[in-house]
Structures are given as C-alpha cells and as structure tokens.
Write a structure and sequence with these properties.
Distance between the termini: 64 Å
Order of helices and strands: HHHHHEE
Amino acid sequence: MKTLLLLLALSTTLHAQTLLTDAPIPEPQARAIRAQQNAQGLRNSVLGGLRHSINDLWSADYQTNVETAAALGTRGGELYSLYQAFFQSIRQLLVAAGDNASVSELDSLAARVPALTVNADGTLTITPPPEPEPTPEPEPTE
C-alpha cells in the first residue's frame, strides 16, 4: 500500500511539473503512457491481493493448516481449485510479459500453500511434514 501511495504521489508531482514546464503530450501518447502505468498498477494489485490471501489462509505451522482445512469444510477443494487456476493464469500472463521478478514472487507465494489432497467430498487433507532424519549416534571413542 505504501508503494502504491508513493507511486501516486510521485506520479502526481511529475504530472504537475510536466504541466508547468513541458509542452502538452499528444493524447494518443498520453493514453499509451497511462495504459502502461495502469497495467503495472493492476499487476501490483493482483500480486498484492494474492500475497494477502495466501498469507492470511496458510501458515508455516502444520497443525494450524490442518485446523484451517477443517474450518473450510467441503468448500476447501473448490477454493483450492480456484486459487490454482488463478495462479496458473496469472503466471502465464507474467511469463508472456517477460516479468521474471513477478513470476518469482508468484512462485514463492504458491510455495506457501501446503502440500494437500483434495478429497472426493471437497474437504482438504494437509500432508504431514516428513519425519526428521534421526541423528546418528556418535561412535564411542576408545
């Protein structure tokens, strides 16, 4: 949000300075500039919304994720499918645009979703974390 406000303030300041010092920009060029700014704003908004949603829904803690999945009930599978489709669509658009930084951010958000199974009834089963490797006993010294 701070970034968006800073961009708005900077844009407004630059626009005001342009009005005072530069010749007017032809309307087609101004529309083209706004289109690029709007696309970047939309990209930032979508990634920010996904970041908020994923951070709000999933935790790094297994038990918390199990409890969240239980609270979602039979709607969990539908929600999971919706997020998966959304991630895939947004990722394809970002890849096509060559926006590698945003693709990386999206991939890191997707990695926050715990491993899970969508059951036939729409509920989710969170996959337990792997058991830690046993620490080898030190060999006795003579």
